[in-house]
Amino acid sequence: MRNIFLILFLILSLNAFGQASIQYDIVLTGGRVIDPETKLDAIRNVGIQNGRIMMVSSDPLAGKETVNVSGMVVAPGFIDLHVHGMVNIEQEYQLHDGVTTALELEWGIEHTGAWYASRQGNALIHYGASVCWPFERMKAMERYQSNVDELLAQVKNKEANRQNFFHAAGPSFLEDQTPEEMAQTLVNIKSALKEGGIGIGVPIGYLPDTKPAEMYSVFELAGQLNALVYTHNREPNILSSQEVIANAMLTGAPLHIVHINSMSLGQIDFALKMVSTAAQKGFDITTELYPYTAASTGLMTAMFNEGWQEKLGIDYGDLQLVATGERLTQETFTRHRRTNQYVIMHMMQPEWIARGIAAPGVIIGSDGMPYSKLAHPRTAGTFSRVLGKYVREDQVLDLNTAIEKMTLLPAKRLEGIAPMMRFKGRIQVGADADITVFDPNTIIDKATFEGGLEFSEGIEYVLVNGTFVLKNGETVPNVFPGQGVYGKFKK
Ligand SMILES: [Zn+2]
User: Fold this and answer.
1) Would you state the pLDDT for residue 86?
2) CA-based radius of gyration for the chain
3) Residue 376 has pLDDT above 90, yes or no
């Protein structure tokens, strides 16, 4: 807290005594500035200095570099708390979608400290990850030591990705833990939190045979530490939502349920009602969704265990292979499952998604996938799609509410576990200069299920820590201002 007040004091002093003579590093002039926290929505000039927003004013401001952004919206940079891309090829798509902070929280990351070190100084936008419960669990099982080492080598060589991870760790997902291994898992999670992990990623849907008592022990630890838990629920049904909500209420663990759309399918209204009721009763429980009617994952995962057609309400022909775009048959399903090919699963109705996007307090998170030309379009288009399709075209929600769901709400969700998020998600004096400037009349996603990933349109400028990473709709070459976002336990 003290730092905030010191910064504010310095800024106010400058404003009172030196405004006329200040020359900011960058000034954005004439834009429609939208700040969801103060409810500011007005034409303002924004002065940026040393990576922070130093002035928001209707008076003219002097800058070393001045950019006229009239006709455009000046919003806080979008915060995506659910991505799986680990490197800059994915970050560039996110950047063109207006994202300035992209965090892997659903799964988390293996070898937390080493991974953060591998990203330092070479990221386009801010990065961060939770502690990966499935990894810390495997690490507690001594017979998997060589798999643990193999993953460390990949992290150090900047080759960490979800597919490699699944190959190395997947076999352990099928094994029960002894009481000693369960205890060691909790020790491992605590030490990874000290390396900077932003809470605990608990994708139990990929380890659905995990004993309830084992899962509960992870929530107990999270409750004791007040560490945020992110869950991909055990199964795509209401009982599984009730399981994690009950665990959170009983243990006091803060809980964020990822992609409520694919977790609850046609029961999304009921699932959202449970989350909002829990919040009204004072429990720290939130959720998110992505604006698409299809899901995506690997064929080898537990998602496709016996009985998947019934659980998901789909059949082979609803699965689209990411590698080629083809729809599957029973025969090609069996073949591609052996090599854990990624698929897109067409399994949701448009009205479920629209209702989820409009629901109060629900955050927008992309669940962006590792790069592949035909990867799920959410990887590149989530935020522009909400602003172009759901705000402008379909009028499912208003512009200010949509911006709040992609900036202030995720920042506030994470402030308790990552205090530096207090400086993000806002266009206010003293906030980090993470800013997205877009044309509300043209913004739209361009990535599709058929054509694959494309940069979104209408995002014109993006600043990360006061540095332009996107200018006139083009990536600025050779700038890497992205910094690590760390959890509060970092030593
Ligand atoms: Zn998931």
Assistant:
1) 86
2) 22
3) yes
Q: Which domains does the chain have, with CATH numbers?
A: 2-76+429-475 (2.30.40.10), 78-418 (3.20.20.140)
Contact 136, 200 (CB under 8 A): no
Give the integer Cα–Cα distance in Å for 17 and 345. 60
Task: Measure the CA–CA gap between 97 and 78, rounded to whole angstroms.
Answer: 8
Q: What is the 3 state secondary structure string of 24-63?
A: EEEEEEEEEEEECCCCEEEEEEEEEECCEEEEEECCCCEE
480 CA to middle of ligand 1, Å?
28
Ligand 1 center to residue 278 CA distance, Å?
A: 22
3-state secondary structure of 261: helix
Q: In whole angstroms, what is the distance from residue 355 CA to residue 32 CA? A: 28
Among 323, 437, 415, which Cα is nearest to 369's? 323
Q: What is the pLDDT of residues 407-442, one digit of tens each?
A: 999 999 999 999 999 999 999 999 999 999 999 999
CA of 262 to the centre of ligand 1 (A): 8
Reported pTM = 0.94
CB of 449 within 8 A of CB of 342? Answer: no
Q: Which residue has tokens 């057609």?
A: 309
Compute, in angstroms, the gap from residue 429 CA to the centroid of ligand 1. Answer: 36
- Going by C-beta distance under 8 Å and a sequence separation of 6 or more, which residues neighbour residue 438? 72, 73, 75, 98, 384, 387, 458, 459, 460
